Amino acid sequence: MRRPLLVLRVIISVTWYKSSEASSVSSYLRIRNLYKNFGDFTALKDISLEIEEGEFVCFLGPSGCGKTTLLRAIAGLDLQSFGSIEQAGRDISALPIARRDFGIVFQSYALFPNLTIERNIAFGLENAGRSKTEITGRVAELLDLVDLADQGKKYPAQLSGGQQQRIALARAIATSPGLLLLDEPLSALDAKVRVHLRHQIKELQRKLGVTTVMVTHDQEEALSMADRIVVMNHGVIEQVGTPTEIYREPGSLFVADFIGETNQIHSTITAANGLTVGKCALRSAAHGFAQGQQVIVTIRPEDIIPHEPGSRRAESDHSALAVTVGEMEFLGSFWRSRLTGAELGDEVLYADFSINAVRRLSLAAGSALTIELPADRLIAFPAGGDDVGNG
Amino acid sequence: MSATAENLRPAGRPIKARLGRDDLAMRGFMAVIALYLVIALALPLYAMLSKSFSTYQFDLTSYEFQVSDDTGNFQTAPITAAALNETLQAVPSEDLATSSDGRLPATSFFPEFSFRSPMIYRIRGTGEDVSFLIGSERFSGTAWQEVDSNTFRRVMLRPVRSQGLQNYTTYFSTPSLFRSIENSLFISALSTIITVTLAFGFAYALSRSCMRFKGVFRLIALAPILVPSLLPGIALVYLFGNQGMIKGLLLGESIYGPIGIVIGSVFFTFPHAMLIITTALAISDARLYEAAESLKASRWKIFWTVTLPGARYGLISAAFVVFNLVITDFGLPKVIGGQYNMLAVDIYKQVIGQQNFEMGAVVSVVLLIPALVAFAVDRQVQKKQVALLSARSVPYQPRANPRADWLAFGYCSLVAVFIVGLLAVCQFAALIKFWPYDLSLSMNNYAFDLMDGGGWDSYYNSIQLALLTAVFGTLVVFTGGYMVEKIKGFETGRGLFQLLAMLPMAIPGMVLGLAYIFFFNDPRNPLNVFYGTMAILVICTVTHFYTVSHLTAVTALKQMDREFESVAASLKQPFHKLFRLVTVPVCLPTILDISIYLFVNAMTTVSAVVFLYSPTTTLASVAVLNMDDAGDIAPAAAMGMMIFYTNAGARILHLIISKGVLKRTQAWRFR
Amino acid sequence: MAFRRTCLTAVAAGLLVASTAAAETELTVYTAVEAEDLKRYAETFNQDHPDIKINWVRDSTGIITAKLLAEKNNPQADVIWGLAATSLLLLKTEGMLEAYAPKGVEKLDAKFVDKSTPPAWVGMDAWVASVCYNTVEAGKLGLTPPKTWKDLAKPEYAGHVIMPNPNSSGTGFLDVSSWLQIFGEDGGWDYMDKLHGNIARYTHSGSKPCKLAAAGEIPIGVSFAFRGAKSKAAGAPLEIIVPDEGVGWDMEATAIVAGTAKLEAAKTLVDWSVTKTANEMYNSGYAVVAMPGVAKPVEHFPDNLVEKMIDNDFEFAANNRKAILEEWQKRYDSKSEPKS
Q: Where is the signal peptide (chain C) (predicted)?
């Protein structure tokens, strides 16, 4: 019997297998069976993860999920209780911070308030056998890189939040570390600056090719910036994948629910590729559940396709339902519509219809409508199970 | 896949951090400072505690007597004093307990003794270290000493040291001693009520009225911090003594006693209470007042339902701080207490007056109890107060109300007159040639070299002590605070350090000073080289005032970003570079605050150092005490005012330096 | 050449410094002598012995005694010069004094020398109890000057007398021990019971009652003659009364502290302390000094003082000190306020 989480596990272990077998070179950061206990509380449970060189990885999850704890373990700020961490083939599990190789940017930026911007950036460059001119040159270069070339003589408090953030970034990469750690770097900024900085950071990362781990609770940030996302919850990894994988093929009900928005429908399995939605049996993608089993089936609002009322192409087309439109909420680029109907039974669906579709079908509250639930967008998860699958 | 217990605690050993050079260095620093606190605090206190259990006992089994017949021949066998006492019951067992100074006449065991008898007596000890006196000559050992009967009456047995609770029994069965507990509690409670009430009014006027000269009033209210606690006592003698300027106001009551102690205590504890209550009032939420006013509550009702409850933690905290200050103060009751005994003075009397160190230790332990309780309660309250502080509130802005403002002004003026008055009286007395018979002005009273107390040298010594304490103390306290605040991991060590750092606040100065005698004057202690030096005074003073300085440092350090150290480490920079370039410059205002706090207190402290000064290290504050003690009251007042001016000068200097330093190093604060 | 000369000078200077350093011995001397006299004592001594530097540790008798006892196992003092004989007896019984017969000790009155051979201490001068009586303040209150100790216990003086606390003051203790010797043990306590009713308060130090009387703070202060004479000289309206029954006295005495590392210098100082020069020096404040025939009358000192000195039994005082003080404390210290 296959379960989504099982799938995830297999994927991870396959990745792990592949990388350990094929090339230990390409896997830059390797985390194995990591645990972190705070007294009786277990903040991280058996975390294993591989990060490739040059990759931009986001740890995403609700607050308290352990993402920051994992980052701090990688940095050596708070040592894990069990498990190992390798960076570039070197076991760094128990090394003090100073003997690891990373640059870090904190949510608070932690800029030294009494030192000028230049001296902040130069802080890590001193005492390393570099000449004064070398340091000055590097500082200028970094200031240029973050577009703050003329701000060097100022104190941090004289800069805006976004500017401070970029200084913190410049300071972190000044010594060209092998790994860049970003701990919620954008959460203290206002929305517009945040969006702007997202691109700037991503671009910078691409330019430098530095392996980067960023912690965030903002899914939009993760989706837009990361090469891969590690979704975490209650101290375990729920799913690892590219943004599209995470969004299109959530590995668990938690991921499906946490990333974007989704309809959740109580359903019963009718066949190896069929299940009920409301009163109708619909075709779905192949799942692994036994016939008659209770499941939760999910479909994202934008995956629901509207058709003319009564336009069932064939009786055998087990993807269409007749519904009535309830309230419609205008959300700028689309309308979110509440759908009910006899065929849905007690279930309520929300669908996002494009403005074009609404105009084409003259949809309004009370309109009758046929909707199509594409079989490959109906994804089933065990019912009653919480986000950690139950066997 | 269920999360079973075993995969939460996987097999294999937990990861143990490998310590970097910084970690080791920081732990090393912290260990050094912890060691300092252990040596300067824990060990002396332990020495004192064990001293309080050290008793002296006449050991009758260790003496043997032999008595001749009338012709001088020894016929009978030697007999021990214990055997004699058993048959005679001459000395009841409770009388065998004594102090180090005890003497027991040998004739006690010979009821038929007559100094005219022709009998000859022999006495010896049964061991080498048994000693006895013949007249003032000391003998010890097992050799027989033979004396005639007239000399025998001059034979005295000496006690040996043992361990037990007997000192405590003696203490609680001596009314003159344990009466002091009641006196101390009474005086402290009364002073606390009066001070807190007066200070609350003052603080209320400062923060809730729009009266004029608030800054001046605040400065005046803080002035008592700059003088030794015994100075108001001297002023009171001039005001209300038998030749006092306004003694009529006392209606025949004597100032020497509870009245004097309470008035003086109110004077010297006022600023402490005022500061705490002002802080408490400053944090109350203006929105509560707006709400109350919109409900049409009367001013009176607002006071009782909003103001008082909001300040209650401040009031409680102030009360315990004042209580603690009064009960542990020694200078004031010494000067103005007359025959009214208090615990802290008892320690002095026992140790200095009667050389009864053991009893001094017992009184110290007794004095520790109320001080510890007050300290513990205050800590609890402070925790709650902090919680209040962090809540988001809108500061209250007083609005003008002419009648109330004039009332506040009048009240504050009265308090200010009281404070300035006492100081002015001291200065006036210091300049009078011979009160009350020759009222011409003269500088005679400044000829300290002709008086007890160490002369002008003691003034210079005090300045030296204050400077050393400020520099050395700030260094130790700030470094210690930094290490304990910023070290990674090592929870047990940090917890222990915090405890050690908090302890000094609960230890009365007298107790600390006495503990130092026991610990540092022990010849077996290699640290006894410090005894009698300026170093021990510095160590003692730093330790005595450690807690407040430590808390100040830690508060400032807590405001620093927690991640500075992580950033520096990730940039492979040693912590000391960060400490030097960032921590110290950013905390400079706090560092200056700590040093002025230590300076002022080192100038005024009497209680701890009174047991520790030596001829080359006499101190101004102790000189005030000693000159008053010798009856040179005017010079005592003069010296007290010298301390005042020095401290005031130091404060002004501190202000100027702070401003200058701030301008130079804190430029980043201003956009 | 120039270089060589400088070198030589430097060496010579070095030698000079070294030799003075060797010659100069510093002695730590504990004393209870009045602060204003110390400088004079040291200067006079240094006229004869410039190579010995005295570092004074001056405090009241009680404190110095306490200090010495506290330092019993680790003495800081080299010499004690000017401490009550009663205290020195106490130290002697603790084995803290180095017995030594100073050169010329035989010229002293035997009363002033410790009975052991060699003596543990030698006396300097006598220090005699007296009553300081402020004529101005007494006049205001309509008091008549007391003539005897017994007078002082009369109700008319209630609240007008201050005396030192014997627990902390050597003067206080010599008063108490003298009353016990004059009136007998029971009579003495009886007397003190009555006197206690008149006492406004007990002071910590022995000179304070007289200074308070001089300042008019109290009309009558039980103190010692020397203090009274000084205050009178300073212009205080004082009369120094010597009660008829006789007055207690104590000696100021000198001793070497056992275990001193500077025994030779200590002996030099103690030798000097019994010379005629020294005795003449003591005479400036004390009417009675150890060397017979030296004493000249002291200004403002009562004439009959010497005759009135009781035959003091120091051994009694020292050996019963603890018992007397305990009894005193039990009787008078337990009352939080004096009866008046």
A: 1-23
B238-291 confidence digits (pLDDT tens): 999 888 889 888 888 889 999 999 999 999 999 999 998 988 887 777 777 888
What residues pair up with A294 in beta bridges, in sequence order?
A268
Contacts of residue B573 in chain A, CB cutoff 8 Å?
Answer: 123-124, 126-127
Pairing of strands A274-277, A263-271: antiparallel
CB contact under 8 A, B451 and C325: no
The residue-averaged pLDDT of C156-174 equals 89
CATH number of C20-126+250-289: 3.40.50.11720, 2.30.42.10, 3.40.190.10, 3.30.70.20? 3.40.190.10
Short-list C124, C117, C113, C66, CA closest to C94:
C66
Question: CA–CA separation, A133 vs C309, rounded Å?
Answer: 93
Q: Which of B8, B566, B572 sits opposite A42 (nearest CB)?
A: B8
Q: B21-45+454-666 and B175-346+399-444: same fold? A: yes
Rounded mean pLDDT of chain B?
Answer: 88
Whether the pLDDT of residue A9 is over 60: the answer is no
Which pLDDT value is given to residue B399? 83
Q: What is the ipTM of this complex?
A: 0.82
Domain boundaries, chain C: 20-126+250-289, 128-249+302-335
pLDDT of A295:
93
C266, with CB counted inside 10 A (0-12, 13-18, 19+), is buried
- DSSP class of residue B159 equals -
Give the tens place of pLDDT for each residue, A105-131: 999 899 999 999 999 999 999 888 889
Domain ranges, ordered by start, for chain B: 21-45+454-666, 57-161, 175-346+399-444
Q: Within the 319-358 window of chain B, which residues sit less than 8 Å (CB to CB) from chain C?
A: 334, 338-341, 349, 351-355, 357
User: Over the stretch B124-147, which tens digit does the pLDDT of each residue have?
Assistant: 999 888 889 888 888 888 899 999
B287 CA to centre of own chain:
41
* Alpha-carbon separation of residue A246 from A241, A254, A257, A288, C336 (angstroms): 6, 11, 11, 20, 85
Ranking B89-93, B342-346, B438-442, C63-67 by mean pLDDT, the lowest is C63-67
Q: Helix (H, G, I), strand (E, B), or coil: what is residue B296?
A: coil
Tokens encoding B596: 């002025």
Class of the CATH domain delimited by B175-346+399-444:
mainly alpha
Which sign does the torsion angle of CA A202, A203, A204, A208 carry?
Answer: positive
Fold annotation for B21-45+454-666: MetI-like fold (1.10.3720)
Give the DSSP per-residue string, B455-490.
Answer: HHHHHHHHHHHHHHHHHHHHHHHHHHHHHHHH--S-
Tokens matching residue B334: 């010494």
CA distance B399 to chain C (A): 50
User: Does residue A41 carry a pLDDT above 80?
Assistant: yes
- Could you confirm whether domain C128-249+302-335 is CATH 3.40.190.10? yes
What are the CA-CA distances from residue B190 to residues A105, B177, B258 (Å)? 57, 21, 10
- Is B7 within 8 Å of A46 when comparing Cβ atoms? yes
Average pLDDT of chain A, as a whole number: 87
Taking an 8 Å Cβ-Cβ cutoff, which residues of chain B contact chain A?
1-3, 7-10, 12, 14-23, 488-489, 561, 563-564, 566-574, 577-578, 581-582, 585-586, 665-669, 671
Contact C137, C178 (CB under 8 A): no
Report whether C242 contacts C304 (CB < 8 A).
yes
Place of tokens 């808390």: B551
d(CA B469, CA B465): 6
Task: Please say if the pLDDT value at position A391 is more than 60.
Answer: no
One-letter amino acid of C321: R
- CA dist B407 and A235 (Å) reads 63
Please list the helix, strand and coil fractions of chain A in percent, rounded to the nearest 5, in that order.
Answer: 30, 30, 35
